[in-house]
Description:
Elements: H1 3-15, E1 54-57, H2 76-82, E2 86-92, E3 97-100, E4 103-108, H3 109-122, E5 127-134, H4 142-149, E6 154-155, H5 163-166, E7 169-173, E8 184-186, E9 194-195, H6 198-215, E10 221-225, E11 229-230, H7 240-255, E12 267-270, H8 275-282
Parallel strand pairs: 1-12, 2-5, 5-7, 6-7, 8-10, 9-11, 10-12
Antiparallel strand pairs: 2-3, 3-4
Helix pairs in contact: 1-8, 2-3, 6-7, 7-8
Amino acid sequence: MGVPVKILCIFMLLLHNSVQSVLNDEATLDLPENYEIGWMESLNDDKFISEVTIPGTHDTMALHAGAPAECQSWSLENQLLAGIRYLDLRVKGKNLKLVHGVISQHTTFSDAIDTIKIFLAQYKTEAVLVRVKHESKGPFPDDVANDLKNDSSCWVSDKIPRIKDVRGKIVFVQKNNFELGIPLLETDEKDDYKVGNVGVTEAEITEHLNEDVKDCKADIVVLNYSSGKGWPQLRLDKAPRSLDKEENFWLYSRSLSPPDSNPCFGIIAMNCPSFALIQRIIGFNY
């Protein structure tokens, strides 16, 4: 059984099993037997990376400091093994510590890049998109930027690559004063992350996803967020995990109904996505 058929079988099984969890709040990762970690192997080499629907995580390394601050439960390594191919790294300070706002996540940008490289050395068919948000004032450190430019395992060009050009590589994505990599179109508008009414938020995400089917093209990568922060924050029904579960279930069950042809929804960045939800999104590439 080839890779596409295996992935399609998993995808169809998940579609018909509505009791599958959509939110992961466990640090451990239990992969199904015979699961193909390298799901990008079957993608057409000549397809642009901007034409792929890519599961990602919002605030990838926000793993510490309790529920209000935690956006993910899996380690970076486990996220990659589960199929995540877009990472959102927030860095701060001289040593580029990974942070969530003012909260340290007890690791560094360098450590995260090393983890990604180890993964890609084992799974050479894959590509991992990385957006770096530099939270400190001033430019991103020149010495680190120069090291990345000279690293053959990193794509730092602003030209959208084809899949064959970036297998086994980190593909950097531009963000504010981090100017390396490919351009990004963020569909979120100001204050979209504040979730006061889940129904309104779901309608906004639906609109963005529908736009993406038209916008996926060779000159820019589209980024969508399915995550948000409860607003006002003190309401129990707007607690982070409650919102994440509701948004993830909606995303899994409704927002991505397949049209007649294979759609492209760009990058979908999520909080605590389950394995089932990640596979749901991967399946739209087939």
